[in-house]
Amino acid sequence: MEENGPFRAFTQTAVAVDRDKNSMHAVKWAADHLLISSPAVILIHVRGRGSSSNPVTDTSSELGREHQDSEMTEFFLPYRGFCARRGIQLREVVLEDNDVSKVIIEYINANHINNIVVGASNKLVFTFARKFRNPDVSERLLKSVPDFCTLYVIAKGKPMTIRSAKSPGLVNAMPPRQLLSSQQLAEGGSDTDEQVR
């Protein structure tokens, strides 16, 4: 495919992150192997929906939201520093659902993500019952990731499993609106919805 000016093709890469150290390994691996030609990454964090039996007033709801925002700011801080040092454009996405793999798959489908990178589970020793009754996120993604998306499962900085895309996905003519640089805008790109889609 020819790359002409601001309308070159972009491959969207997302990394699913949590508090596990393999998440940082996954981001580093993606930066070294996938973000070379298109230095932009989407970090996806899934936060479980809290079920509270006590009704919450508006004031405490605002305080709770501020606490969650500060918690997410602190959570993404190491990733921001790493991406800034590498010159990688970063977009942070926080999704809420109790089924982590399902909500990641929905996000991949809705945003046409070409590459998804996840850290392997720290529990590398599975019992027979655990493996079939309660698979971890990377195992569930491996079974249900869309055909247009390549899945990389990273453990200790090395790919443990790679499931290649089976069909070519939608190639985005422009990066997502949040990732347009000021240089691209000055060269004639716009951040209106018509040109992004």
UniProtKB/TrEMBL annotation:
It catalyses: S-ubiquitinyl-[E2 ubiquitin-conjugating enzyme]-L-cysteine + [acceptor protein]-L-lysine = [E2 ubiquitin-conjugating enzyme]-L-cysteine + N(6)-ubiquitinyl-[acceptor protein]-L-lysine. Keywords: Ubl conjugation pathway. The keyword RNA-binding does not apply. CDD domains: USP_STK_Ubox_N. Its EC number is 2.3.2.27. InterPro entries: Rossmann-like_a/b/a_fold (IPR014729), U-box_ubiquitin_ligases (IPR051348), UspA (IPR006016). SUPFAM superfamilies: Adenine nucleotide alpha hydrolases-like. It is an enzyme of class 2 (transferase). One of its GO terms (molecular function) is ubiquitin protein ligase activity. Residues 15-144 form the UspA domain. It comes from the Eukaryota. This is RING-type E3 ubiquitin transferase.
